[in-house]
Every structure is written in structure tokens, then in C-alpha cells.
Write a structure and sequence with these properties.
Blueprint (H helix, E strand, L loop, with lengths): L3 E2 L5 H7 L2 E7 L4 H16 L4 E6 L4 H6 L7 E6 L2 E7 L4 H13 L2 H10 L1
Amino acid sequence: MATTYLGADNFEQTVTGNDIVLVDFWAAWCGPCRQFAPVFERASEQHPDIVFGKVDTEAEQALAAAAQITSIPTLMAFKKGHLVFSQPGALPGPVLEELIGQIVELDVEAALAEERGA
């Protein structure tokens, strides 16, 4: 599955309507963003069951501000509508693959219950 363009009109619906969503916040002028783009694209092809979305922070400034993006690229991961990962910086392919594996294995309900109980 190729990456999906996300904007203010479809971001929330995409995040809440899919099991796992990875979002790359990027800009065309950003060198590290351009380096990360093919890594993100390859991962999207290897994991057709996961939604890979891209947010152009220049075109979607209000969305980037709402997501508190201060550095790009920033990768966010959502599972069952909950933010489970957020980190600025371009990840190498093997690190992204490891992260995807951890997100797939994550029991988000148990993590949320533990967080509420803590």
C-alpha cells in the first residue's frame, strides 16, 4: 500500500478508523524528510495492513500546530485511535521495522489501563 496524504479534512477519521496508522510530518524543503521518504514508502509496501500517512507541514500548518510538531520529520504512530509513539528525526529502515513490530505487538488497552492505574 502506498502512502496516503493526510490533511485537516481526513486526519482524525484516518487515525480513529484504522487499527494502526503511522504518520510522517514532513516538508519539501527538509533534507532529512527527503531522506526518510523512501524508507517510509518501502515500509508502507511491506505492511499493507497498516495505514501510512504523510502530512505536509507547509500545506497543513494548522494540523501540524495542533499535533505540536516543532521539528521535522516527525513520526507519529497511532493504534486504535491512541497516540503510542511520537519522535522527531529520520529513522533508518531497520529501526522503523523494529518500531512497527513493537506497535503491532502492543496491547494498547492494557497500556492505557496501566497508565490510568499508575
